[in-house]
Automatic annotation (TrEMBL):
PROSITE patterns per record: KS3_1, KS3_2
Protein's recorded name: Beta-ketoacyl synthase N-terminal-like domain-containing protein
Presence of keyword Transferase: yes
Keyword terms: Acyltransferase, Multifunctional enzyme, Transferase
Length: 796
């Protein structure tokens, strides 16, 4: 006899399936959130033209009241090769017509001892590697990340680098005698990121990126992906660019890519090429949730990024508007940000007649008129106009600028009053983009500040990132207990560095309230690596701590390997002391709140702080508790439990000064967070191999152009172009007229060289010839002949 369905069992199956479905949906949402997780910028560091070596200096420069201030200057005296190839005449073979750029003030000095590098190796090492080591260290310190070499912290390193020209000076006229075993590790691109990871003892991915001018923004993109994917918990991302050799400078001038005046005139009518610049920059990154949980500063947030390639564009080195639109849309999708939310764009903006209109058109199509209704146009700027195009480091220079802008809520001028009119090839009156002429507040509420940044490589690799400001929910004021004692620790690898650091910290203490003092001391204790030369002082306010630093200190406890803890018989006093320790130092709650005797809990407190003790028998006549180390007795708990916080940190100060490996990250007062604090004062020495300058092949004099005869007819022009195209392409066997131009190696450089050739042959000025790369050679030659005839007024 048939029976009906088991209703209860069916109901259970349905409920189980619903639970499974909900779990699967939650898991998908979790994975989706991780894929798009925001990344916090927690620290920054830089070396930029104009003596900019701190965020404060960069901020001052960007908002300088002098609107014409630019960090451009002549070729330094010690760049012998660059100086030797300079010639003011454009097009002169083997020479550069540029004698100005955004140069760094000092690239030869380095604190080799700090990084454990010998003088011999330091002299051989590319200065880019040296400077990247310094800015990597500073970015970590500003982020409150103590990268102890022995800890092998999961920090990834992603560095953009394009040229490595320093190694060329070790070979002259075929003489290789100056090359030693350090030459390869000091010059190769792969060692740029690896050097940082090795020197700092990092375990995350280490990747050097070379995509030309987009290198450092691609490095940021890769760092964000690595953090989201769990490959590392922290990341360093940045780039470096130094102008040390003549080869690239000459090549760029032969291609007329550079502005004769050495300045990038971004989006201006008189844009005539880009101006080169030097620089090194780095950001320290963390997943936003982790940064907030650990109390690290959040300077800005990377919401999303994307990278693509131009593909089969109109020329290998010609920018592609459609590809730029694609990468911007992909970055917005990754950031989960609507195009209309973007209020500012740090553009690539090299200042070329061809590149700027293409970029502005792509930006407008996505973020301007393409974004629909806007309450205000998108502000547009490029720091290249002020410091030069930093090539491999251009992207990180722009990111560092955005971090300051988003935090300050201020948009600097994108064009200066004396710059003249904007590029007339860009329809400014019909697009939703503008170039501000003066510094102004960011439009909208602080929590709504969103910006994009673009970087386009000469190789065709494009990158775009979306950043936003971060404004946490209002928090209650830090409840620092009255008369809270603070332990301020400083250390260095060199006595002079320690004295210099002490002076900087004394200045930083000026005017700080209790919460500020608590955060500064917490940063110096928990956000710094501790070295052999040490200072440690105790005080309850900024003035007391500064005076103590200025006065010096007694010696510490030496030979503290064996520490004995003795406790008295009065458990009530110990219980009261532990309660006071928990109130002043919440990070010790894991030990003070444990079960067990007061003596055992106090020992657990010391263990948390890195002090390993042997517990001795109680002494009824002794104070509440004391430790004996290195032949000295240090009181931890006296008759009054309220004194326990001060006595504990005084004992820790003595141990710290003596070199004990104490761990002080648990001593933060209530509400203490990582904050801006003076970074390590590197003690630099000059490491530099002088360059042997080649003898100039021609006297540096301005040549007088010879008199030339204009062509008689189109046939003469066509014959000349046919011959010259083969010469330009070095086609010894001639050119197949039916083959597409791109298949014989034709590109935008070919068009530029043909233009120069016609100008020299016939003594005229022409716009760059339009060379459709897919056109067959024969059709192209006809097309070019028509162009030249029109430009020269010759009948077709």
């Amino acid at each position: 006899m048939a029976t009906g369905p088991d209703t209860a069992a069916l109901r259970q199956v349905i409920q189980d399936q619903l639970k499974l479905s909900r779990r699967l949906k939650d898991r998908v949402a979790e994975l989706e959130a991780r894929t798009h997780a925001p990344v916090a910028v927690v620290g920054t560091a830089m070396r930029l033209p104009g003596g900019i070596d701190t965020p404060e200096a960069y901020r001052t420069f960007l908002y300088a009241p002098d609107p014409d201030s630019r960090a451009l200057g002549p070729i330094p005296e010690d760049r012998t090769g660059l100086r030797s190839v300079y010639h003011p005449e454009r097009g002169k073979e083997g020479h550069s017509y540029v004698d100005r750029a955004g140069f760094l003030d000092d690239i030869a000095s380095f604190d080799a001892a700090f990084f454990g590098i010998s003088q011999r190796e330091a002299e051989t090492m590319d200065p880019q590697q040296r400077m990247l080591l310094e800015v990597a260290w500073e970015a970590l310190e500003r982020g409150g990340i103590a990268a102890r070499r022995q800890d092998r912290m999961p920090i990834g390193v992603f560095v953009g680098v394009m040229a490595s020209e320093y190694g060329r000076r070790f070979v002259h006229d075929g003489d290789y005698s100056r090359i030693d075993p350090y030459h390869s590790t000091s010059s190769g691109h792969c060692f740029v990121a690896g050097r940082i990871s090795y020197a700092l003892g990092l375990s995350g991915p280490a990747t050097s990126v070379d995509t030309a001018c987009s290198s450092s923004l691609v490095a940021v993109h890769q760092a964000v992906r690595a953090l989201r994917g769990g490959e590392c918990d922290y990341a360093l991302a940045g780039g470096a660019n130094l102008i040390l050799g003549a080869d690239l400078m000459v090549s760029l001038c032969q291609g007329e890519a550079l502005s004769p005046g050495g300045r990038s005139r971004s989006f201006l009518a008189d844009a005539d090429g880009y101006g080169r610049g030097e620089g090194v920059g780095m950001v320290a990154l963390m997943r936003l949730d982790d940064a907030l949980a650990q109390g690290h500063p959040v300077l800005a947030v990377v919401r999303g990024s994307a990278v693509n390639h131009d593909g089969a564009s109109s020329g290998f080195t010609v920018p592609s508007g459609p590809a730029q639109q694609e990468v911007i849309r992909a970055a917005l999708a990754d950031a989960r940000v609507a195009p209309g939310a973007v209020g500012y764009i740090e553009a690539h903006g090299t200042g070329t007649a061809l590149g700027d209109p293409i970029e502005v058109g792509a930006l407008d199509a996505v973020l301007g008129t393409g974004a629909g209704e806007r309450t205000a146009p998108v502000a547009l700027g490029s720091v290249k106009a002020r410091i030069g195009h930093l090539e491999a480091a251009a992207g990180i220079a722009g990111v560092l600028k955005l971090v300051l802008m988003l935090g300050d809520g201020t948009v600097p001028a994108g064009a200066q009053p004396g710059d003249g009119r904007l590029n007339p090839l860009i329809p400014w009156d019909r697009i939703a983009l503008n170039v501000p002429r003066e510094t102004a507040p960011w439009a909208g509420a602080p929590e709504e500040r969103t910006a994009g940044i673009s970087a386009f490589g000469l190789s065709g690799t494009n990158a775009h990132a979306v950043l936003s400001s971060y404004r946490p929910a209002p928090a209650a004021p830090a409840d620092v207990p009255a008369d809270h004692p603070e332990l301020l620790t400083l250390s260095a690898k060199d006595p002079r560095a320690l004295a210099e650091l002490s002076g900087r910290v004394q200045e930083a203490l000026t005017g700080l309230d209790a919460a500020g003092v608590a955060s500064l001391c917490h940063t110096l204790r928990a956000g710094r690596v501790h070295f052999g030369h040490r200072l440690a002082v105790v005080g309850t306010d900024a003035a007391t701590l500064a005076d103590a630093l200025a006065a010096g200190q007694p010696d510490g406890v030496r030979s503290a390997d064996r520490v004995v803890l003795e406790t008295g018989a009065d458990t009530a006093v110990l219980d009261g002391a532990l309660t006071e320790l928990a109130r002043h130092f919440p990070g010790l709650g894991e030990a003070t709140g444990k079960e067990g005797t007061p003596a055992a809990r106090l020992r657990a407190v010391l263990t948390l702080l890195g002090v390993k003790t042997t517990l001795a028998g109680g002494d009824p006549a002794a104070p509440g508790a004391r430790i004996t180390a290195g032949g000295q007795s240090l009181t931890l708990v006296g008759d009054a439990p309220a004194d326990a916080p001060r006595l504990l940190i005084e004992a820790l100060a003595a141990l710290y000064r003596g070199g004990a490996p104490v761990r002080l990250d648990r001593l933060g007062a209530p509400g203490a967070v990582f904050t801006d604090a003076p970074t390590y004062p590197f003690q630099r020495k000059r490491f530099w191999i002088e360059e042997t300058a080649p003898e100039p092949s021609h006297p540096v004099t301005v040549a007088v152009a010879p008199t030339r005869t204009l062509p008689l007819n189109r046939a003469e022009i066509g014959a000349y172009l046919t011959t010259e195209l083969a010469v330009v392409l070095k086609a010894d066997c001639g050119l197949d007229p039916d083959v597409p131009f791109c298949d014989v190696g034709g590109d935008s450089f070919t068009a530029m060289l043909l233009t120069k050739s016609v100008e020299q042959q016939y003594g005229v000025d022409l716009p760059t010839l339009d060379c459709p790369v897919e056109m067959p050679v024969a059709d192209l030659l006809d097309h070019l002949s028509d162009q030249v005839c029109v430009a020269m007024g010759v009948d077709k």
